[in-house]
Fold:
Amino acid sequence: MTEPRPELERAREIGRVVADLRTRFVKHKRYLRLAEEFDLLLYRRRAEIEGGLKSEARGLVVIGASGSGKTTAIRRLFAKHTDLHLPRPDVEQADVVSFLVPAPATLKSVGYDCLTSLGYPLNRDRTGAVIWSKVQTLLSERKVLFLHLDEVQHLYNLKANRESQAVVNTLKSLMQRPDWPTGLILSGTNELQSLVNMDPQLSRRLTPVEFPSIDATTHAKEIKGIVSHYSEIAGLSVNASELSSSNFARRLIHAAASELGLVIELIVAAIEDALLRAASELDKEAFARAFARRSGCSHVGNPILADDWRAIDARKLLDGAGASLIGPGVAA
Ligand SMILES: Nc1ncnc2c1ncn2[C@@H]1O[C@H](COP(=O)(O)OP(=O)(O)O)[C@@H](O)[C@H]1O
Ligand SMILES: [Mg+2]
Structure:
Protein backbone atom coordinates (compact mmCIF):
# COMPACT_ATOMS: atom_id res chain seq x y z
CA MET A 1 0.00 0.00 0.00
CA THR A 2 1.31 3.48 -0.79
CA GLU A 3 1.86 5.96 2.02
CA PRO A 4 -0.64 8.85 2.18
CA ARG A 5 1.11 12.03 1.02
CA PRO A 6 -0.57 15.04 2.62
CA GLU A 7 1.54 17.57 0.67
CA LEU A 8 0.39 16.01 -2.61
CA GLU A 9 -3.21 16.08 -1.49
CA ARG A 10 -2.78 19.74 -0.52
CA ALA A 11 -1.25 20.61 -3.91
CA ARG A 12 -4.20 18.94 -5.60
CA GLU A 13 -6.65 20.89 -3.48
CA ILE A 14 -4.90 24.18 -4.36
CA GLY A 15 -5.00 23.18 -8.01
CA ARG A 16 -8.75 22.64 -7.77
CA VAL A 17 -9.40 25.97 -6.05
CA VAL A 18 -7.32 27.90 -8.60
CA ALA A 19 -8.97 26.08 -11.51
CA ASP A 20 -12.37 26.93 -10.06
CA LEU A 21 -11.44 30.63 -9.77
CA ARG A 22 -10.15 30.66 -13.33
CA THR A 23 -13.42 29.39 -14.72
CA ARG A 24 -15.42 32.07 -12.94
CA PHE A 25 -16.66 35.03 -14.88
CA VAL A 26 -17.11 38.57 -13.60
CA LYS A 27 -20.16 40.14 -15.26
CA HIS A 28 -18.76 43.60 -15.77
CA LYS A 29 -20.61 46.51 -17.37
CA ARG A 30 -18.91 46.11 -20.73
CA TYR A 31 -20.09 42.50 -20.87
CA LEU A 32 -23.68 43.54 -20.22
CA ARG A 33 -23.45 46.14 -22.98
CA LEU A 34 -21.96 43.57 -25.37
CA ALA A 35 -24.75 41.11 -24.58
CA GLU A 36 -27.39 43.79 -25.07
CA GLU A 37 -26.02 44.91 -28.43
CA PHE A 38 -25.65 41.33 -29.59
CA ASP A 39 -29.26 40.51 -28.71
CA LEU A 40 -30.48 43.55 -30.61
CA LEU A 41 -28.72 42.30 -33.73
CA LEU A 42 -29.73 38.68 -33.24
CA TYR A 43 -33.43 39.33 -32.82
CA ARG A 44 -33.56 41.90 -35.56
CA ARG A 45 -31.96 39.43 -37.94
CA ARG A 46 -34.26 36.60 -36.88
CA ALA A 47 -37.31 38.83 -37.37
CA GLU A 48 -36.09 39.80 -40.84
CA ILE A 49 -35.64 36.17 -41.80
CA GLU A 50 -39.10 35.24 -40.49
CA GLY A 51 -40.65 38.18 -42.33
CA GLY A 52 -38.82 37.24 -45.52
CA LEU A 53 -37.14 40.65 -45.58
CA LYS A 54 -33.96 41.01 -47.58
CA SER A 55 -31.52 43.39 -46.01
CA GLU A 56 -27.85 43.70 -45.29
CA ALA A 57 -26.47 42.21 -42.10
CA ARG A 58 -24.96 44.25 -39.31
CA GLY A 59 -22.40 43.47 -36.68
CA LEU A 60 -20.24 44.56 -33.78
CA VAL A 61 -16.67 45.72 -33.49
CA VAL A 62 -15.20 45.00 -30.06
CA ILE A 63 -12.10 47.04 -29.33
CA GLY A 64 -9.74 46.78 -26.37
CA ALA A 65 -6.08 46.27 -25.54
CA SER A 66 -4.76 42.80 -24.94
CA GLY A 67 -5.83 41.61 -21.49
CA SER A 68 -8.95 43.78 -21.39
CA GLY A 69 -11.19 40.71 -21.51
CA LYS A 70 -12.60 40.66 -25.07
CA THR A 71 -12.10 36.99 -25.90
CA THR A 72 -13.37 35.82 -22.51
CA ALA A 73 -16.47 38.01 -22.75
CA ILE A 74 -17.40 36.96 -26.29
CA ARG A 75 -16.86 33.28 -25.51
CA ARG A 76 -19.00 33.60 -22.46
CA LEU A 77 -21.70 35.43 -24.38
CA PHE A 78 -22.01 32.63 -26.93
CA ALA A 79 -21.62 29.76 -24.47
CA LYS A 80 -24.27 31.03 -22.03
CA HIS A 81 -26.78 32.29 -24.56
CA THR A 82 -29.95 30.32 -24.14
CA ASP A 83 -31.14 30.91 -27.67
CA LEU A 84 -28.19 30.17 -29.96
CA HIS A 85 -27.27 27.09 -31.95
CA LEU A 86 -23.53 26.66 -31.55
CA PRO A 87 -21.58 24.52 -34.02
CA ARG A 88 -21.95 20.83 -33.22
CA PRO A 89 -20.65 17.81 -35.05
CA ASP A 90 -23.24 16.32 -37.40
CA VAL A 91 -25.52 19.37 -37.20
CA GLU A 92 -25.40 21.60 -40.21
CA GLN A 93 -27.02 24.73 -38.78
CA ALA A 94 -24.84 26.98 -36.62
CA ASP A 95 -25.97 30.47 -35.57
CA VAL A 96 -22.44 31.61 -34.76
CA VAL A 97 -19.03 30.47 -35.87
CA SER A 98 -16.00 31.85 -34.11
CA PHE A 99 -12.32 31.72 -34.77
CA LEU A 100 -8.99 33.33 -34.09
CA VAL A 101 -7.01 35.14 -36.76
CA PRO A 102 -3.45 33.96 -36.14
CA ALA A 103 -0.40 36.15 -36.69
CA PRO A 104 0.86 36.52 -39.31
CA ALA A 105 -2.27 36.31 -41.41
CA THR A 106 -3.19 37.07 -44.97
CA LEU A 107 -6.66 37.39 -46.41
CA LYS A 108 -6.19 34.05 -48.13
CA SER A 109 -4.89 32.23 -45.04
CA VAL A 110 -7.84 33.49 -43.00
CA GLY A 111 -10.28 32.39 -45.70
CA TYR A 112 -8.64 29.00 -45.67
CA ASP A 113 -8.88 28.70 -41.86
CA CYS A 114 -12.47 29.81 -42.08
CA LEU A 115 -13.25 27.05 -44.56
CA THR A 116 -11.56 24.46 -42.39
CA SER A 117 -13.50 25.54 -39.31
CA LEU A 118 -16.70 25.37 -41.33
CA GLY A 119 -15.78 21.77 -42.02
CA TYR A 120 -14.66 22.09 -45.61
CA PRO A 121 -10.95 21.68 -46.23
CA LEU A 122 -10.04 22.94 -49.70
CA ASN A 123 -6.86 22.66 -51.64
CA ARG A 124 -4.45 25.42 -50.61
CA ASP A 125 -3.59 26.11 -54.23
CA ARG A 126 -6.89 27.86 -54.84
CA THR A 127 -6.90 31.64 -55.11
CA GLY A 128 -8.11 33.86 -52.28
CA ALA A 129 -11.19 34.80 -54.29
CA VAL A 130 -12.22 31.16 -54.83
CA ILE A 131 -11.66 30.37 -51.15
CA TRP A 132 -13.76 33.31 -49.94
CA SER A 133 -16.53 32.56 -52.37
CA LYS A 134 -16.68 29.04 -50.95
CA VAL A 135 -16.74 30.51 -47.42
CA GLN A 136 -19.80 32.55 -48.40
CA THR A 137 -21.56 29.49 -49.81
CA LEU A 138 -20.89 27.53 -46.62
CA LEU A 139 -22.04 30.34 -44.36
CA SER A 140 -25.27 30.36 -46.29
CA GLU A 141 -25.69 26.56 -46.31
CA ARG A 142 -25.05 26.34 -42.59
CA LYS A 143 -27.30 29.36 -41.97
CA VAL A 144 -24.61 31.17 -40.00
CA LEU A 145 -26.06 34.42 -38.65
CA PHE A 146 -22.79 35.72 -37.18
CA LEU A 147 -19.17 35.09 -37.93
CA HIS A 148 -16.84 36.06 -35.09
CA LEU A 149 -13.21 36.77 -35.94
CA ASP A 150 -10.88 37.43 -33.00
CA GLU A 151 -7.61 39.41 -33.20
CA VAL A 152 -8.62 40.87 -36.56
CA GLN A 153 -5.86 43.50 -36.31
CA HIS A 154 -3.55 40.76 -37.56
CA LEU A 155 -5.15 41.38 -40.94
CA TYR A 156 -4.33 45.07 -40.89
CA ASN A 157 -1.14 46.05 -42.57
CA LEU A 158 -0.37 49.71 -42.38
CA LYS A 159 2.24 49.44 -45.10
CA ALA A 160 0.16 47.44 -47.53
CA ASN A 161 -2.87 49.58 -48.10
CA ARG A 162 -4.14 47.48 -51.01
CA GLU A 163 -4.14 44.30 -48.94
CA SER A 164 -6.04 46.06 -46.13
CA GLN A 165 -8.55 47.38 -48.67
CA ALA A 166 -9.06 43.85 -49.95
CA VAL A 167 -9.73 42.69 -46.39
CA VAL A 168 -12.30 45.43 -45.90
CA ASN A 169 -14.03 44.57 -49.20
CA THR A 170 -14.18 40.88 -48.33
CA LEU A 171 -15.65 41.54 -44.88
CA LYS A 172 -18.18 43.93 -46.35
CA SER A 173 -19.25 41.47 -49.02
CA LEU A 174 -20.05 38.86 -46.35
CA MET A 175 -22.56 41.25 -44.83
CA GLN A 176 -23.98 42.36 -48.18
CA ARG A 177 -24.52 39.03 -49.86
CA PRO A 178 -28.13 39.18 -51.09
CA ASP A 179 -29.23 35.58 -50.51
CA TRP A 180 -27.61 35.12 -47.10
CA PRO A 181 -25.88 38.09 -45.47
CA THR A 182 -23.77 37.11 -42.44
CA GLY A 183 -23.25 39.55 -39.56
CA LEU A 184 -19.72 40.06 -38.32
CA ILE A 185 -18.42 40.26 -34.79
CA LEU A 186 -14.89 41.59 -35.10
CA SER A 187 -12.68 41.83 -32.03
CA GLY A 188 -9.18 43.16 -31.66
CA THR A 189 -6.93 45.99 -30.56
CA ASN A 190 -6.94 49.62 -31.68
CA GLU A 191 -5.48 48.74 -35.06
CA LEU A 192 -8.73 46.95 -35.83
CA GLN A 193 -10.48 50.29 -35.40
CA SER A 194 -8.13 51.75 -38.04
CA LEU A 195 -9.02 48.90 -40.39
CA VAL A 196 -12.75 49.42 -39.91
CA ASN A 197 -12.37 53.19 -40.29
CA MET A 198 -10.88 52.71 -43.75
CA ASP A 199 -14.36 52.26 -45.12
CA PRO A 200 -17.43 54.23 -43.99
CA GLN A 201 -19.76 51.56 -45.45
CA LEU A 202 -18.15 48.98 -43.21
CA SER A 203 -17.94 51.12 -40.06
CA ARG A 204 -21.58 52.20 -40.44
CA ARG A 205 -22.67 48.56 -40.22
CA LEU A 206 -20.65 47.76 -37.11
CA THR A 207 -21.73 48.95 -33.67
CA PRO A 208 -18.66 49.70 -31.56
CA VAL A 209 -18.32 48.12 -28.11
CA GLU A 210 -15.27 49.28 -26.22
CA PHE A 211 -13.28 47.50 -23.54
CA PRO A 212 -11.30 50.54 -22.37
CA SER A 213 -8.47 50.53 -19.86
CA ILE A 214 -9.52 51.18 -16.29
CA ASP A 215 -8.48 53.40 -13.40
CA ALA A 216 -9.03 53.44 -9.65
CA THR A 217 -11.69 56.17 -9.80
CA THR A 218 -14.01 54.02 -11.87
CA HIS A 219 -13.03 50.50 -10.79
CA ALA A 220 -11.54 50.46 -7.25
CA LYS A 221 -14.84 49.40 -5.69
CA GLU A 222 -15.53 46.62 -8.19
CA ILE A 223 -11.98 45.28 -7.80
CA LYS A 224 -12.25 45.30 -4.02
CA GLY A 225 -15.43 43.27 -4.40
CA ILE A 226 -13.69 40.70 -6.62
CA VAL A 227 -10.77 40.41 -4.14
CA SER A 228 -13.12 39.67 -1.22
CA HIS A 229 -15.37 37.34 -3.18
CA TYR A 230 -12.52 35.28 -4.67
CA SER A 231 -10.68 35.16 -1.31
CA GLU A 232 -13.79 33.85 0.38
CA ILE A 233 -14.13 31.08 -2.19
CA ALA A 234 -10.49 30.15 -1.57
CA GLY A 235 -11.02 30.14 2.21
CA LEU A 236 -8.70 33.10 2.80
CA SER A 237 -9.33 36.20 4.85
CA VAL A 238 -8.32 39.57 3.44
CA ASN A 239 -5.75 41.85 5.06
CA ALA A 240 -8.08 44.82 4.93
CA SER A 241 -5.64 47.43 6.18
CA GLU A 242 -3.31 46.64 3.27
CA LEU A 243 -5.74 45.80 0.49
CA SER A 244 -8.52 48.30 1.10
CA SER A 245 -6.43 51.40 0.65
CA SER A 246 -6.90 53.40 -2.51
CA ASN A 247 -3.14 53.39 -2.91
CA PHE A 248 -3.18 49.60 -3.21
CA ALA A 249 -5.99 49.69 -5.78
CA ARG A 250 -3.96 52.12 -7.87
CA ARG A 251 -0.85 49.97 -7.64
CA LEU A 252 -2.76 46.82 -8.53
CA ILE A 253 -4.37 48.44 -11.57
CA HIS A 254 -0.99 49.80 -12.62
CA ALA A 255 0.62 46.36 -12.22
CA ALA A 256 -2.08 44.94 -14.51
CA ALA A 257 -1.32 47.51 -17.23
CA SER A 258 -4.72 49.13 -16.47
CA GLU A 259 -6.63 46.21 -18.02
CA LEU A 260 -9.56 44.66 -16.16
CA GLY A 261 -8.89 41.08 -17.32
CA LEU A 262 -5.28 41.30 -16.19
CA VAL A 263 -6.37 42.64 -12.79
CA ILE A 264 -8.56 39.56 -12.31
CA GLU A 265 -5.71 37.30 -13.43
CA LEU A 266 -3.40 38.96 -10.92
CA ILE A 267 -5.93 38.50 -8.11
CA VAL A 268 -6.15 34.76 -8.87
CA ALA A 269 -2.36 34.51 -9.07
CA ALA A 270 -1.99 36.24 -5.67
CA ILE A 271 -4.52 33.87 -4.12
CA GLU A 272 -2.60 30.93 -5.56
CA ASP A 273 0.58 32.32 -4.03
CA ALA A 274 -1.04 32.68 -0.60
CA LEU A 275 -2.41 29.12 -0.75
CA LEU A 276 0.96 27.70 -1.76
CA ARG A 277 2.55 29.38 1.27
CA ALA A 278 -0.22 27.96 3.47
CA ALA A 279 -1.17 31.51 4.52
CA SER A 280 -4.59 32.11 5.99
CA GLU A 281 -4.72 35.68 4.76
CA LEU A 282 -4.35 37.42 1.40
CA ASP A 283 -1.97 40.36 1.71
CA LYS A 284 0.04 42.80 -0.36
CA GLU A 285 3.08 40.51 -0.39
CA ALA A 286 1.09 37.82 -2.21
CA PHE A 287 0.29 40.29 -4.99
CA ALA A 288 3.91 41.44 -5.16
CA ARG A 289 5.14 37.85 -5.44
CA ALA A 290 2.53 36.96 -8.06
CA PHE A 291 3.60 39.91 -10.16
CA ALA A 292 7.30 39.08 -9.71
CA ARG A 293 6.69 35.46 -10.69
CA ARG A 294 5.03 36.53 -13.91
CA SER A 295 7.39 39.31 -14.91
CA GLY A 296 10.65 38.24 -13.33
CA CYS A 297 11.06 41.74 -11.90
CA SER A 298 12.97 42.71 -8.76
CA HIS A 299 11.58 44.41 -5.65
CA VAL A 300 12.62 47.81 -7.07
CA GLY A 301 10.77 47.22 -10.33
CA ASN A 302 7.62 45.82 -8.72
CA PRO A 303 4.61 48.19 -8.97
CA ILE A 304 3.03 46.67 -5.85
CA LEU A 305 6.07 47.59 -3.70
CA ALA A 306 8.30 50.17 -5.40
CA ASP A 307 8.35 53.80 -4.27
CA ASP A 308 8.20 55.19 -7.78
CA TRP A 309 5.73 52.59 -9.04
CA ARG A 310 4.07 54.99 -11.47
CA ALA A 311 7.25 55.10 -13.54
CA ILE A 312 7.26 51.31 -14.09
CA ASP A 313 6.03 50.09 -17.48
CA ALA A 314 4.04 47.05 -16.35
CA ARG A 315 2.86 46.20 -19.87
CA LYS A 316 6.43 45.88 -21.02
CA LEU A 317 7.34 43.64 -18.09
CA LEU A 318 4.29 41.40 -18.57
CA ASP A 319 4.68 41.16 -22.34
CA GLY A 320 8.37 40.52 -21.98
CA ALA A 321 7.75 37.55 -19.71
CA GLY A 322 5.19 36.21 -22.17
CA ALA A 323 3.76 33.69 -19.69
CA SER A 324 0.43 33.55 -17.94
CA LEU A 325 0.12 35.23 -14.54
CA ILE A 326 -1.03 31.94 -13.13
CA GLY A 327 1.89 29.57 -13.28
CA PRO A 328 1.72 25.83 -13.76
CA GLY A 329 2.67 25.77 -10.01
CA VAL A 330 0.38 23.10 -8.66
CA ALA A 331 -0.53 19.74 -10.07
CA ALA A 332 -4.17 19.22 -10.92
N1 LIG B 1 -15.03 38.78 -17.03
C1 LIG B 1 -13.98 38.10 -16.60
N2 LIG B 1 -14.06 37.34 -15.49
C2 LIG B 1 -12.98 36.65 -15.03
N3 LIG B 1 -11.78 36.67 -15.62
C3 LIG B 1 -11.63 37.41 -16.73
C4 LIG B 1 -12.71 38.15 -17.29
N4 LIG B 1 -12.28 38.79 -18.39
C5 LIG B 1 -10.97 38.47 -18.52
N5 LIG B 1 -10.58 37.65 -17.53
C6 LIG B 1 -9.21 37.14 -17.33
O1 LIG B 1 -8.33 37.99 -18.04
C7 LIG B 1 -7.56 37.25 -18.98
C8 LIG B 1 -7.40 38.05 -20.24
O2 LIG B 1 -8.65 38.18 -20.86
P1 LIG B 1 -8.85 37.97 -22.44
O3 LIG B 1 -10.31 37.74 -22.66
O4 LIG B 1 -7.91 36.95 -22.95
O5 LIG B 1 -8.43 39.41 -22.96
P2 LIG B 1 -8.27 39.91 -24.45
O6 LIG B 1 -8.96 38.93 -25.35
O7 LIG B 1 -8.93 41.26 -24.46
O8 LIG B 1 -6.79 39.99 -24.69
C9 LIG B 1 -8.30 35.94 -19.17
O9 LIG B 1 -7.43 34.88 -19.38
C10 LIG B 1 -9.02 35.75 -17.85
O10 LIG B 1 -8.15 35.11 -16.95
MG1 LIG C 1 -8.11 37.86 -26.90
